[in-house]
Amino acid sequence: MIFQRLSLSIDETYFINLHKKTFESLYNFAGVYRDENITKGDSQFCLAQYLHGKSNRIFKELENENYLADIKEDKALFAKRLAYYQGKLIALYPFYEINGRITRLFSDMLALFNGYKSIDYSGAIDNGAYIDASIECVQYADSSKLEEIMFRGLNKI
Q1: Residue 59 and residue 13 in contact, taking contact as beta carbons nearer than 8 Å
Q2: H-run or E-run covering 120
Q3: How far are the Cα atoms of 63, 86, 151 from residue 80, in angstroms, in the given order?
Q4: How far is CA 77 from the centre of its chain?
Q5: What is the C-alpha separation between 41 and 1, in angstroms, rounded?
Q6: Over the stretch 41-83, which tens digit does the pLDDT of each residue have?
Q7: CB-hemisphere CA count at 13 Å for 121?
Q8: Whole-structure pTM over 0.90, yes or no?
């Protein structure tokens, strides 16, 4: 197994530190949640005033699901729940920059933690399907397209 369960917790602190450690040489705001409202096109991300509370709820829910460890053998259900959480993090858009990459990296870590390889997004990113799925997560709270991408991109180690 790549990760030792007792020594690693894929929680909110891990998510924040993932952003910080990955981008601290580029951005002075790496690992810091934004305090301004952000939109992209017609998509309004989580309002800054609710960001910390919403983030805490998402990660508490993930913890209550044992970081998806209890459903890892059911690929379809695992993909559904992983897409759900990735969709929530996409809509949260907690950082000023590099949210998509860090959210995908965090999902990869959850996959690895549960015995899957890193998620193969290549086809979905190349043809724009990932962006479309992300927009649906933000505008309609619908992660079904993202679920399909996850299911196709997940493979056991």
Answers
A1: no
A2: none
A3: 16, 10, 8
A4: 16
A5: 42
A6: 989 999 999 999 999 999 999 999 999 999 999 999 999 999 9
A7: 20
A8: yes
Query: What DSSP state is assigned to residue 116?
Result: B
Task: State how far the alpha carbon of 155 is from the alpha carbons of 58, 72, 82, 127, 139, in Å.
Answer: 25, 11, 13, 21, 29
Within the chain, what is the greatest distance between any pair of CA atoms?
Answer: 42
Candidates 118, 127, 129, 125; CA nearest to 153 is: 118
Between CA 123 and CA 19 the distance in angstroms is 25
Decide if 57 contacts 65 (C-beta within 8 A). Answer: no
The answer to whether 120 and 129 are in contact (CB under 8 A) is: no
CB 95 within 8 A of CB 89: no
Go through the domains of the chain in sequence order and give each one's CATH number: 5-153 (1.10.3290.10)
pLDDT at 126: 87
Place of tokens 């695992």: 78
State phi, psi for 116 to the nearest 5 degrees: -105, 160
Residue 8 confidence (pLDDT): 67
- Using 50, 70 and 90 to split pLDDT, how confident is the model at 111? very high
